[in-house]
């Protein structure tokens, strides 16, 4: 298991990595469905807390495998067996999302999570034996992971009043492992590959949300007497999802992924982006409940279950990507637009106004010539576009 060339051209997600992503989206889908159910039952606050806790386990396991695979993907049979073992852990985790969010029973979630983490330790041990230059880094990863896992196993014994603080503490310990390990020597991940992996997972999560939302609306249309509100919800939801895709893929991010100092904030910050995208379908489900009278939330609270996650998605994309590219007033307009998105929950037919704000945000981003700059078009100083973008050598 020797490291791959970080400058390897044309590096994209392998078939195994895409299969891995699809398994993870099952867990995201189940967690989002439970979030929607808790919103419909009038417990959105509890649902959000449980969703964020469950989503951390999903996201963190995905992220660790992604960065490891970018550096050490040998695709031999031991690598595949360990990767498939991690996928088995994801399946266990996915099954555990329902009891975790309904009753706070994290036993299955933790079991699946520990399976994934221990399998990753096996990968790091192989890497430590195969290349002496990265042995110290690899063994630091193994040590950090093995120290934290027993603490997760003991987590269900935590008194109820301390569960969230203890969870946050353990999550911070997990986040500290890459910082500690990479300080020995940076692993040779491929910036192009990492950008492709994050883009692929964003697409898959958005696609899952659109699928779940479309299915829910189609089912509701079959039983509804007044379909006008559902048609507006479906149309507005599609425009919003399309806008989320547009702003995320508006520009290139490879120049942010060359070194730990900028790459780790990019990777960690995607917790907000992915979690918000996954919550999109839950908001649609709650708004369907408002339309057909099965939901227990009022109009403003129901609309907020959609507009707030979308606003957080836009803020996350701005903080991680767009603020490094946008120039002048446009840099401020995007976060202002995100706040406006959240505030549309106060208006009647909120999804329509949210869609209009999203279209305005797309126009702001597109008018900055981000796509043309990345494509290498020649821009003149008088063009009202972004400032210069640095690219890795």
Can you give a write-up of this model?
It is built from 13 helices and no strands. Helix 4 (107-130) runs antiparallel to helix 5 and helix 10 (299-320) packs antiparallel against helix 11. The radius of gyration is 22 Å and the shape is globular. It has 393 residues and is mainly alpha-helical. The two termini are 26 Å apart. It has 2 domains: 15-182, no CATH class; 191-375, Up-down Bundle (I/LWEQ domain).
List the helices and strands and how they pair.
Elements: H1 15-40, H2 44-72, H3 77-103, H4 107-130, H5 135-154, H6 163-182, H7 191-221, H8 228-248, H9 260-292, H10 299-320, H11 330-343, H12 350-366, H13 370-375
Helix pairs in contact: 1-2, 1-3, 1-7, 1-9, 2-3, 2-4, 2-9, 3-4, 4-5, 5-6, 7-8, 7-9, 8-9, 8-10, 8-12, 9-10, 10-11, 11-12
Protein name: Low temperature requirement protein A
Transmembrane segments: 12-31, 51-69, 81-100, 106-125, 137-155, 201-221, 227-250, 271-290, 296-320, 332-365
Pfam families: LtrA
Q: Give the averaged pLDDT, no decimals.
A: 88
Shape: globular
For the record, the CATH architecture of the largest domain stands as Up-down Bundle
Q: State the CATH topology of the largest domain.
A: I/LWEQ domain
Alpha-carbon Rg, integer: 22 Å
| Secondary-structure-derived class | mainly alpha
Helix and strand element order: HHHHHHHHHHHHH
- Sequence stretches where pLDDT stays below 50 over 5 or more residues: 373-393
Number of helices: 13
Q: Which bin fits the share of residues in helices?
A: over 70%
Number of beta-strand segments: 0
Largest sheet: none
Q: How far apart are the first and last residues' alpha carbons, in Å?
A: 26 Å
- Percent of residues in beta strands: under 5%
What is the level 1 CATH name of the largest domain? Mainly Alpha
Number of separate domains = 2
């Amino acid at each position: 298991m020797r490291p791959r060339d970080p400058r390897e051209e044309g590096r994209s997600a392998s078939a195994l990595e895409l299969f891995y992503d699809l398994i993870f989206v099952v867990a995201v889908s189940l967690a989002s469905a439970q979030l929607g159910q808790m919103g419909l039952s009038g417990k959105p606050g509890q649902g959000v807390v449980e969703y964020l806790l469950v989503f951390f386990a999903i996201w963190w396991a995905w992220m660790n495998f992604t960065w490891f695979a970018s550096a050490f993907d040998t695709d031999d049979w031991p690598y595949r067996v360990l990767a498939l073992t991690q996928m088995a852990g994801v399946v266990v985790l996915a099954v555990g999302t329902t009891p975790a969010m309904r009753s706070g029973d994290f036993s299955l979630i933790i079991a699946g999570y520990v399976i994934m983490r221990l399998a990753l330790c096996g990968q790091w041990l192989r890497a430590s034996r195969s290349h002496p230059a990265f042995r110290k880094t690899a063994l630091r990863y193994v040590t950090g992971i093995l120290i934290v896992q027993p603490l997760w196993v003991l987590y269900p014994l935590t008194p109820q009043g301390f569960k969230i603080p203890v969870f946050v503490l353990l999550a911070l310990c997990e986040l500290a492992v890459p910082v500690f390990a990479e300080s020995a020597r940076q692993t040779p991940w491929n910036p192009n590959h990492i950008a492709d992996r994050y883009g692929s997972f964003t697409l898959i999560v958005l696609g899952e949300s659109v699928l779940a939302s479309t299915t829910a609306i189609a089912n509701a249309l079959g039983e509804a007497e007044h379909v006008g509100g559902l048609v507006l919800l479906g149309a507005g939801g599609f425009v919003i999802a399309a806008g989320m895709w547009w702003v995320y893929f508006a520009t290139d991010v490879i120049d942010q992924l060359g070194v730990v100092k900028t790459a780790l904030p990019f990777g960690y910050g995607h917790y907000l982006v992915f979690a918000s995208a996954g919550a999109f379908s839950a908001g649609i489900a709650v708004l369907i409940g408002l339309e057909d009278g099965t939901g227990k939330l009022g109009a403003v609270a129901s609309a907020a279950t959609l507009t707030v996650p979308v606003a957080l998605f836009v803020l996350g994309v701005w903080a991680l990507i767009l603020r490094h590219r946008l120039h002048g007033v446009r840099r401020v307009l995007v976060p202002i637009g995100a706040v406006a998105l959240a505030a549309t929950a106060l208006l009647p037919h909120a999804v329509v106004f949210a869609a209009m704000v999203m279209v305005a945000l797309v126009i702001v981003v597109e008018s900055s010539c981000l796509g043309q700059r990345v494509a290498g078009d020649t821009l003149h100083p008088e063009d009202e576009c972004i400032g210069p973008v640095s690219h890795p050598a």
